[in-house]
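Quick note —
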Amino acid sequence: SGIVKHSSGTGTTIISVPVTNEATGEIRVDTGTLSITTLTNLSSGTLTGGTYIVTGGTLSLPSTFTTNAASLVVGVTGTISSGGTDVLPGLTVNSGSLSLAHSESLTGSLTNSGTVTINAGTLQATTYAQSAGVTTVVGGATLQAGSAGTGTITINGGTLTGNGTVTGTVSGTG
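Predicted structure written out below.
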């Protein structure tokens, strides 16, 4: 447990020893870049453990991930990257918590069984499927399936809530 925080300056801080983010731990970037060269919670394309908050600046990880099983909070100017590239467009599975305050266009489909909160901007995926958990689209934000809003949003479990905009063909039994 504990907090690793980069909260002042626009430069880069590199942590070159292995880091493990426990369930009650937090890695936070408010400004600049925090680069973690070895994160034991990132393995085989899955991010686990603890909370990762990037309100501004960049959290640079050693590799990309397609599955989020952790708690991610990404602010208006925050970026999670690997090798200088935003990793969120490659996200395909969320079983943890994902909170976004800016637009993200995913390169494929997103399956949610955790919590997705779209606070601002647009979360766009080819298709969006939820088997459990909660998706919240806050007023002024958008959940969009397909580049033109013609994709499918399937809610077979959990809850779709909020007073934002949902664009796509919505179906399901949830």
